[in-house]
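Tutorial handout. Part one gives the primary structure; part two gives the three-dimensional structure as tokens.
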Amino acid sequence: MALKDSFGRWRENAFVLKSPKACSSLKQLMGNIWTAYKYGNGLKNIDCPIPPGVYIAPGMDTSIFNSNNNFPKSFFYGTYKMHLYYSRNDEIFGCQVFIMDIKRP
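Part two.
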């Protein structure tokens, strides 16, 4: 995860997490929003492991990330860029990039 500094540059590797069994780990992290997350990424009738294929993501309501998940409940405010890489035996076969703006309370 990269953090945007006060000069507008990205500081890479501000937070790094490697997890085996990516789908199961992501499902646990998403908690109760897992189904909405799957549908938003075009994975309607699919569970872990996600089979190879082409999936068309219709988009999702990002307000689902505000509650009912297992994300850390407190985090330093700022703008973050999160890269999710899906790999097996050091071969990357998928990725997603999210930019999150965590507001000051």
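Part three, for discussion. The longest helix spans residues 22-30. DSSP finds two helices and four strands in the chain.
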